[in-house]
Amino acid sequence: MKEIFNELIKEIEEILYLPIDKNSKLERICILLKEKIYYYNWVGFYFAKNGNLVLKAYSGEETEHKVIPFGKGVCGRVAESKDALIVQDITKEENYLACSRKVKAEIVVPIIREGEFLGEIDIDSHYISPFNSDDEEFLKEVCKIVAKII
To answer: How many CB atoms lie within 10 A of CB 19?
Structure first.
């Protein structure tokens, strides 16, 4: 997977310089990740606004969770802690916002620029235990690039 992740970082860096608006860039990144990594079944970017996370771009099934208060669910917990969080089996998670019955696992990585929490990337998987430290490191690099976009 590391080779695929390295290729994707190059593609995402190219998106950074496209002459399109920020939301279009974010949408392209979501689509790219969902299409290229089979266990990334829903990919979205949430951004901080007045103590909430607001969904700006995503690829995957429609979600009712377009606004999430800090502290609620996995995404809300990451907004408070500013640390990445991997949930390998959502059925074992007490503070979980169910997006779809298909979702089995989730990884959320914060977007931080100069110490400020800006938002996060949220990825749902239809597989139990698909994520590892390589995913986390890859997504941290993605978030560094996204911090330049916003």
So the answer is: 5
Residue 73 gets the label, from left (phi > 0), alpha (psi -120 to 50) or beta, of left
Instruction: Quickly list DSSP for 2-29.
Output: HHHHHHHHHHHHHHHTSSS-HHHHHHHH
Cα torsion 91, 92, 98, 99: sign: negative
Question: What radius of gyration do the chain's Cα atoms show?
Answer: 14
Residues 6+ apart with CB under 8 A from 34: 40, 41, 42, 43, 59, 60
Q: CATH assignment of 2-149, given 3.30.450.40, 3.40.250.10, 3.40.50.300, 3.40.50.970? A: 3.30.450.40
Quote the percentage of the chain above a pLDDT of 90. Answer: 88
pTM above 0.70, yes or no: yes
Domain boundaries, the chain: 2-149
In the numeric block, the tokens 């860039």 are attached to 25
pLDDT in tens, 53-71: 999 999 999 999 999 999 9
Distance CA(77)–CA(109), nearest Å, equals: 11
Sequence-ordered strand ranges (E) for 3-138: 42-49, 52-59, 67-69, 85-87, 105-113, 116-125
